[in-house]
Amino acid sequence: MAPSPSKAAKLTAKRLERLLREWHIRGVNAEQVVVALRGRSCPLAPGTVEAASEQVLLLLTHVRLLLQPLLTRARRIEQILEELSTHGGEQAVPDVQVLLSLPGVGRIITATMIAQAPQLLVDRDYHGLRAYAGVEPVTRQSGKKSTVLMRYGCNLRLRNAVYHWPRVSMQP
């Protein structure tokens, strides 16, 4: 939007507000950005702005190139989950629809749960699922002493999915 400080100072608050909303930036508001952009800038050597602008354009092509496989993979995961929820071979997998309906569970967490612990979900073995995900505590007792520890022997991918599930569900 503004490759140079002089062009950045000309941006309106309305345009900056739209940009911040589009990229889900909540830490600052448009007025603060306007004040920062119109404030005193550092003196630059001749050609610095042009060189930096060209470098950013070069990096943008790299980012777009790296983003393409991620978007393709996300679309493929969505297709597979759609197939599983509608007609999963002999019968539909209702766990996909149930998992996707839960707050904080998206396509990545659903795909991880279905891929890493399918039999536990089919059997509805929730205690086994908790233990396999590493969220069920381990109690060690010896005589009068009893300690509760975190379970370290678990599926790390499933633990990561179960960790992000409540974290994402709490976000506004």
Describe it.
The chain has helices at residues 5-9, 13-22, 30-38, 48-87, 94-101, 107-116, 118-123, 126-133, 156-169, and strands spanning 138-142, 145-149. The protein has 172 residues and is mostly helical. It has one domain (44-169). Strands 1-2 form a two-stranded antiparallel sheet. Helix 2 (13-22) crosses helix 3 (30-38), helix 4 (48-87) crosses helix 6 and helix 5 packs antiparallel against helix 6 (107-116). The radius of gyration is 25 Å and the shape is elongated. The relative contact order is 0.07.
Please name the defining characteristics of this protein.
single chain; 172 residues; mainly alpha; two-stranded antiparallel sheet; 9 helices; 64% helix; 6% strand; elongated
Unreliable segments of 5+ consecutive residues: none
Count all strands and give the number: 2
Number of domains: 1
Instruction: Assign a percent range to the helix content.
Output: 55-70%
Distance between the termini: 28 Å
What fraction strand? 5-15%
The protein's oligomeric status is single chain
Strand order of the largest sheet: 1-2
Shape: elongated
The number of helical elements comes to 9
* CA-atom Rg in angstroms: 25 Å
- What letter string, H or E per element, gives the SSE order? HHHHHHHHEEH
Mean pLDDT: 89
User: Structural class given helices, strands, pairing?
Assistant: mainly alpha
Largest sheet: 2 strands, antiparallel
